[in-house]
Amino acid sequence: xxxxxxxxxxxxxxxxxxxxxxxxxxxxxxxxxxxxxxxxxxxxxxxxxxxxxxxxxxxxxxxxxxxxxxxxxxxxxxxxxxxxxxxxxxxxxxxxxxxxxxxxxxxxxxxxxxxxxxxxxxxxxxxxxxxxxxxxxxxxxxxxxxxxxxxxxxxxxxxxxxxxxxxxxxxxxxxxxxxxxxxxxxxxxxxxxxxxxxxxxxxxxxxxxxxxxxxxxxxxxxxxxxxxxxxxxxxxxxxxxxxxx
Length: 245
Fold this sequence. Notes:
By secondary structure, this protein is an all-beta fold. 2% of the residues lie in helices and 40% in strands.
């Protein structure tokens, strides 16, 4: 496939912060990869480089954040030569690719949801996408519909289901005055707590617990946008431990 123009669109939702959304590459070093990295969207594109190193085509653009929130996000990539419009949730970013070439020269397959191991440098230890996609459209082809009707030949479908499983988690909303108190375990010598949270507030108390027998307490809070853990122990000389992240 050698194209001067490309239009690629899809919607996705995931709770994972890493994963390849789609990938295609060619024998001459061209490639296009759209992936999630640290819950941000990264588009890597190369319309060709030369062996002398005077033409370097690799281009990487990052957009968005916190895209692992299990909400639907829409992507539109419009390419005309070296001019690219990358739209994420109606926010458009325009850029030009590096190098001097206008055509994207790919092999005969493009993969969605992962990257097959090809032995080429581009296929190094990237995670497959885990989540849901819909309305996949590649240069006028409705990929989702064609895949469901088994009209993509040849195609390799690995463990794919045409449904979207919702997570079995129940979120809890706290306003500025609400709290949740649960019973402690006085006979346990291990304190363990884990949770996911999201907030726009830079300050707030997340967890507080007193230790039994007046041995101290533990407090987890947000302070100026950073999570801090404070452990107070009454029985030892160095009686306070503070960890911030």
